[in-house]
Amino acid sequence: MLTLAIETSTPLASVALGDEDGLLAESMLSMRVTHSETVMPDIGRLLSEGGFSSRDLGSVVVGAGPGSFTGVRVAASIAKGICFGRGLPLFAYSGLLAAAAGIGVSANICALFDARRDELYAAAYRSVDPPEALIEPCVQGIEAILTQLSPVAEWTFVGDGARRCVDAILHHGGTVLPVDMGIPRAATLLWLRREHPDEGRIADAAVWEPSYVRASGAERALEA
Question: pTM of the entire structure?
Fold first, then answer.
């Protein structure tokens, strides 16, 4: 049976199809239009081009956030709808873990996404195979993050947030990889689903919600 993967934590989103042997197809989504306008058509296209239909799906894996509120919410809604409607199992992994696992290094990786307002979505992993988080997904400033990773020289940083804070990271002795090496991908979600299913298995897809880590801009405005 096929597994559908959806990752929309960052502006460069992706969808992918895989089976027990690995990746079958992946599509990177153009962000000239919104996630909601691109994800479902690309899912349909991948299935059609592979000679499949939604009836061939056996499970769905989705990026659980944090990241773009709209993107994470759209992916979660689509994944939950497919799973609830067809009775399929749902798996979810942090987009930060997907970014860390996607570079092919299994130890001391800190993934950082730009959260704006001088903040970063962050998670740090001593291992991604199996996942071992030193810092669970959170939102913090760069100095607070670096304080928890002493010595910083032992850590490699990935993601658009790492590039934004490259001067601070290099000053503390850390290594920063190019932005394109830290993009969370649907293909990596498939790998996590295949290699570490228990870490991502969702007990009840109908009630599961992604991890936004902080309130949305609209919610913060209401609280102000």
Answer: 0.93
